[in-house]
Amino acid sequence: MQIVAITAPGTAAVLERPDPTPEDDFVVVRIDLAPMCTEYKVFTGGGTGLALGHEAAGEVVAVARPGRVRPGDRVVVMPGTGCGRCPLCLSGDYIHCEQAPRVATPTYAQYVRKQDWLLVPVPADLPLRHAAMACCGLGPTFGALRRMGIRASDSLVVTGLGPVGLGGVIGGVAAGARVIGVESQPYRARLALALGAEAVVDPSDPEAAARIRDLTGGGADRGIDCSGSAQGQRLLIDAMRRRGHLAFIGEGGDLTVHVSRDLLRKGLTLHGHWHYNLADAPALLGLIGRLGPALDRCITHTFPMGRFREAWDLQAAGHCGKVLLEPWAVTAGSPGS
Ligand SMILES: [Zn+2]
Ligand SMILES: [Zn+2]
């Protein structure tokens, strides 16, 4: 099969690798769509990686034994792995499992090998490109909104409107909340407004937090950080109302939290939130079934996997919403460089 790998700083290519085979509860899924997350940051940051990506949707093609899925099943592939036995796995929060098997399950690839219990069946009437948004496109923010008990009367601020944050706008709007985005990239700001955000504030504006407090009548009820930057995280804390709840989803950021000012006096509740509970997957797929037009607006580009460099350049420039790779699409010309 073909995979994409960053073989040296600044060098990435499509490589040939042996096809995976099923074993125990690990089954083989043909990846038809691999939504792109923030892998481009590894490339632009000078990192390397032979196992890129963690989002996928496709079809089960091989199993080692009878289990939860059969060849031919269309599935969403959940990110990561888990032991399947510890209290975290049994409660659906497998993403935090401390005994997860040490196996890579990259999705910039034509096949992925995955435990059958980490595959979510896709309803027959749901387009696969919509179902694929149950990975990072909508998943982490969906989980965070559930955890914070979002209500239709709430105002929600989302900082960082990239491949994860835009899903927070969609989820907040779907919950009936007033959504305010924080983003400096004009393309993404416009897209967030088209997805139903009431306003988008530029984080480089020194008055950004004050503007959000004005727009929300004293501060936002709920907040989600997808910026992964200390500046965005601080802005979010300062934009919240007293007793508000906020979730940190974006990786990174060396945030200083002031215990007295931010926590005691302001009474904020902070959540570290990575993904969503596996038991909530049917609810998310049900929501996805009702979100069709918004998802088509949010998924702005689809590339054959061989054109991954073009896709990364686009993502780095921020001129896109969610971007999908098609590992089986034929690419004209040379596959990457
Ligand atoms: Zn576990
Ligand atoms: Zn992701």
Task: Describe what you observe in this structure.
The strands form three sheets. Strands 3, 4, 5, 6, 7, 14 and 15 form a seven-stranded mixed beta sheet that branches. Strands 10-9-8-11-12-13 form a six-stranded parallel beta sheet, with helices on both faces. It has a two-stranded antiparallel sheet with strand order 1-2. The two termini are 18 Å apart. The protein contains twelve helices and 15 strands. It is 28% helix and 25% strand. The protein has 337 residues and is an alpha/beta fold. Helix 4 (139-147) crosses helix 5 and helix 7 (208-215) runs parallel beside helix 8 (230-239). The protein has two domains: 2-121 and 291-326, Alpha-Beta Complex (Quinone Oxidoreductase, Chain A, domain 1), CATH 3.90.180.10; 139-272, Rossmann fold (3-Layer(aba) Sandwich). The chain is globular. The model is unreliable at 333-337 (pLDDT under 50). The structure holds zinc ion (2 copies). One zinc ion is lined by residues 82-83, 85-86, 88-89, 94, 97, 99. One zinc ion (ZN) binds at residues 37, 54-55, 136.
